[in-house]
Design a protein that fits this description.
The structure is a single chain. This protein is mainly alpha-helical. The protein has a single domain, classed as Arc Repressor Mutant, subunit A (Orthogonal Bundle), CATH 1.10.10. It contains six helices and three strands; from the N terminus they run H-H-H-E-H-H-E-E-H. It has a three-stranded antiparallel beta sheet with strand order 1-3-2. A hairpin with a 7-residue loop joins strand 2 and strand 3.
């Protein structure tokens, strides 16, 4: 039986590390999802705007998303920057602290696979 599930060891080690990381940053599920959306956009050299994130109704309602964005700014994981060409738009950027979180998660993946 052990040999049959051994291939899952790395995955469950990573999930445990992810859970600890989420608790360390005190992230709700909605916060984690929005953080991942902005991180993925950043990774792909795309700019996310507040208006884009408020349309993600598969994550939560617009009111909840607005509150979640505010929480992520208060936790110093997001910053807003006014768009240079259209002052009505607010760009959403990861902070150094948010980047540190992804660096830790990247190391967790590498460590989970090594063991």
């Amino acid at each position: 039986m052990y040999n049959e599930v051994r291939y899952m060891d790395s995955y469950f080690r990573y999930l445990a590390l992810l859970d600890r990381n989420n608790k360390k940053f005190k992230l709700s599920n909605d916060e984690r999802l929005l953080l991942d959306v902005v991180a993925a956009a950043t990774y792909n050299n795309k700019i996310m705007y507040v208006k884009d994130l408020l349309l993600l109704n598969h994550i939560a309602s617009q009111a909840t998303l607005h509150k979640t964005l505010k929480n992520l700014v208060n936790k110093k994981l997001f910053t807003f920057k006014v768009d240079k060409t259209d002052g009505r738009l607010k760009e959403v950027h990861l902070t150094k602290l948010a980047n540190k979180r992804y660096e830790e998660l990247n190391k967790a993946i590498e460590n989970a696979v090594k063991k």
